[in-house]
Design brief:
Layout: H1 2-20, E1 37-41, E2 45-47, E3 54-60, E4 63-64, E5 70-73, E6 78-79, E7 85-86, E8 92-100, E9 103-104, E10 116-121, E11 143-149, H2 157-167, E12 176-182, E13 202-205, E14 209-211, H3 218-228, E15 234-243, E16 248-257, E17 261-271, E18 274-275, E19 291-292, E20 295-300, E21 310-315, E22 320-328, E23 338-348, E24 351-361
Parallel strand pairs: 2-10, 11-12
Antiparallel strand pairs: 1-3, 3-4, 3-7, 5-6, 5-8, 8-9, 8-10, 11-13, 13-14, 15-16, 16-22, 17-20, 17-21, 17-23, 18-19, 23-24
Length: about 375
Amino acid sequence: MKSLFKYASLLAAAVMLSACGNDNGEGGNEGVDDKVFYMTTDKDVIQSDGTDAATIKVFLGDEDVTELATIYDEDDNEIDLDGGIFVASKDGEYKFWAAYGTHMTYDTKKDDNGLMTIRAISVAVPAVAEDPAPANTSFVRRTFLTQYTGNECGWCPNMISVIRELFADNTIPDKAVLAAVHSYSNADPAYIASPKVNSYPFMHIDFTSGFSPESGSAPLYAVVNSNAAQAADAGISVNPVLYQDEKLLVVRVSVKAAEEGNYRVGAWLLEDNIYARQADNTGLADDSYNTHEHCVRLVDSKHDGEWTGKPLGAIKAGKTMEKTFVMDLKKSWKVEELHLAVIVSKETKGGYAVCNAVDVPIDASTPFDYKK
């Protein structure tokens, strides 16, 4: 970034000045480096009509320094945003970083170099799904099962058989959401790249533990039922709008916390009924194994090398936060076979773990699913 060299000189000068203190002997910026410097926006997706606006703010700790900070675009051009208001008249992704004193949000160690992204689209952004019980925080809890598989994986029918046995219980769709990641071979018509998997078949359970099929479906059934009996930390509502002509799926998600915490949210686009002949070293596969369900086409939940969701930040109990996802659809995907898996994860001592999930259609609004 060319202006970083110029900014580095200003940064060095600022550091020298702060080290010298001010005229009355008090340290000029003493303790300021302990505060987190960051940017926020009330909308990460806007309509490119020149009027729909996102409000960008810059904070140093709890202090709003928007009026004092300098905001740059991804090409390091200084941007003059009156009151932090940003509008767009063209579709596209707009990326920003901020500088203030000795601080800047640009960071090569972070995803996308720490740039904040706002996407502008030509179509309207949907509203959140209507909440039928705003005071309620007792949500149905579903386990998120991420299956790593592939049609050229000869041992994968073992896992497919276990999953079929699990979902043969017609109560399981109310307790679990399945996403099949076909990452074994790029010759697979449902192929998608994934984080490294040491062996196939394999399954992540809520991105906290792993499962292999050797012990059959009983241990998996026990985990799913145990989770379903527990209180969910958060609930999810989803309002997707499909724009066929633009080949866009715009998804507005709301997360309501039952327990205060730091949360992330992610949206996965799945496709059913993909035909590919399944390799079989197990003797389990019949012709039905050649039709693949819940195949992951798109993952919009990647952050810092993980798939646990995009950051929402802290949510107090009973409060909500929203996220809009924009998915560009490929012509080869069968729209009538598409559906969405949406996950919410919560920060724990070991990182972020999925605490709830839903599997919803792309052509209907789905409100928070409260326990009856």
